[in-house]
Fold:
Amino acid sequence: MNSNDNGEPTVPTRFEVTALPVTDVDRAKAFYQQLGWRLDIDFEPSPGVRGVQFTPPGSAASIQFGSGAAKPAPGPLRGLLLIVDDIEAARADLIGRGVDVGEIFHMEPGRGPAPGLDPKRRSYASRAAFEDPDGNQWQLQEITERLPGRV
Structure:
């Protein structure tokens, strides 16, 4: 791969999919459908092998899970981020869909997590977490203004 003068790759590279460890494919499928995510595919490419892919609304990246093929490392994934423009509306939407979403918290620079929305409503600071039935942890993160170079 070539790079420019700043050492950045000149060939576009996109993160599009992550594999989630699940113990019950149908239970996981029902959970992500409950979130309102788009079901991209649920197929059996060969006998005993099943693959499922979902994409969150407005996202270019998707999740995949399944059974019968090589599986992700055991144990749930932590800190998967879902970026939202309005954390209060996103949290309310998930709760309305029956998801157990934790209280909103914010990150205090140099001190760590603190309860409630960021008092200055700084981008990247406010979060709320929830888990899927297999313990994979998702965090809503409110971003209203991107850092330079992250548009």
Notes: The first helix runs from residue 25 to 34. Strands lie at 17-19, 38-46, 49-55, 62-67, 80-84, 105-108, 112-115, 126-131, 137-142. The domain at 74-151 is CATH 3.10.180.10 (2,3-Dihydroxybiphenyl 1,2-Dioxygenase; domain 1).
